[in-house]
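Board notes, transcribed. Complex of a protein with magnesium ion.
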Amino acid sequence: MTTTVVLTGIQWGDEGKAKVIDYLASQVNIVARFQGGNNAGHTIVVGGEKTVLHLIPSGVLHRQTVNVIGNGVVFDMGVFLEEKNKLQSRGVDVGPSRLKISELVHVIFPIHRLVDRAREKSKTKIGTTGRGIGPTYGDKAMRLGLRIGELREATSAKEKLRLNFEEKARWLKDLGETEIPNFEEMFETGLMQFRQIESHLIDSSDYLNAEIEKGSRVVFEGAQGTLLDIDYGTYPYVTSSNTMSSFAACGTGVGPKSLHYILGLTKAYTTRVGDGPFPSECMSGPDQKAGEWMAKNGNEFGSTTGRARRCGWLDLVALRRATQLNGLDGLALSKMDVLSGLEKIKVVTAYELNGTRSEIFPNFGLDKVKPIYEEVEGWGALQGARKENDLPKAAQEFIRRIETFVKRPVVLISTGPERDDMIVRKKILD
Ligand code: GDP
Ligand code: IMO
Ligand code: MG
């Protein structure tokens, strides 16, 4: 029986994960996020109304779905309350019975954001979202972090946080930062926020294991994408968590055998926001027009920071690597409609490094490879297609090319931003 599915982005994020999660959420009981924080920007469009989520799982718009924020997430209490209130004012039920948070999430405090932003002014800048993600995961690994459940014992939590705060404040002062918050005020605000959140706290491991055993259907929602993974992404231009499917288990407290189907989502082209190597980028050079086409028609601006996303062709070498790393069973494909109207479409099928051709995605020196392209025919309009036969022949051919290269089936095709713009080739859940 396939009752659980993991969805991960298999590029550099923003593949359209929220849309696919929202689609899957209509068939499941639970949606659980397992990593990242409010560096994510997840967009769902229903009847022209756009919802952008940063922390709350993308199943929230379906009444019957319980949403869980797993232990692998880093958690900004202020952002959560703001997001919750916004949804509540639109009539969405976001009470503790359908929105649950692991008591083990590590808390992002304002000082973490300051450290993140100060680092971004230095030579070690990588183009983060400035949300304090790296410093919070850093504290977790350094064993300095505060898990939200610790705030139940306010006095000891305060003392623990004070030491960490003072260390960070000294470092910030050394860098010449002057706007350092007052510790007492920061803690009191945090504690007030915690009191409003406390009733949402659970042990996500107990909850999810019991539900899965009962036969409840669960979608594990990934944030960011495989090429931003802290271990296998384009380090150091990565995020600070493991973004791959295997972390869905660790980041929620279930065993790996509870992950039944692994689905990876890619756009029909590639985008990246932030710094770092991107072999098939075409924002300049001979294919600049195509890059600008993707940016404009795909509306490629970050949902979190509003930054322009860099655009380029689909990279099948990277996709094959991501297929392996995630152990994908199948692929979902988004945004083919954005390429409609381009005469020729390119895909990367190999790299050239020092005159040698290779089909391997390298662990080092990605900035030095030259992409080798294969050209395929473009296609006409397909936005909103709901049946496979509605796809132009050239678009079907493009999908086959991906499938033969990565040796996995494309099971879902998103053909527009709207919830119902979707072609289902295979039903994933029993
Ligand atoms: P996520 O971070 O992976 O959830 O993706 P984002 O929400 O950051 O960015 C994806 C953007 O593409 C959003 O604006 C979606 O509404 C939009 N989108 C998703 N799928 C499609 C699609 O198939 N076609 C088009 N044109 N837009 C899409
Ligand atoms: P979703 O879930 C795209 C990128 C940042 C930066 C790097 C590190 O919407 O796909 P961080 O703030 O995490 O320390 O930044 O990772 N990044 C994303 N890019 N989509 C995201 O999330 C991202 N989350 C982080 O731009 O390059
Ligand atoms: Mg996004």
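Residues 154-174 form the longest helix (21 residues). The two ends are 6 Å apart (CA to CA).
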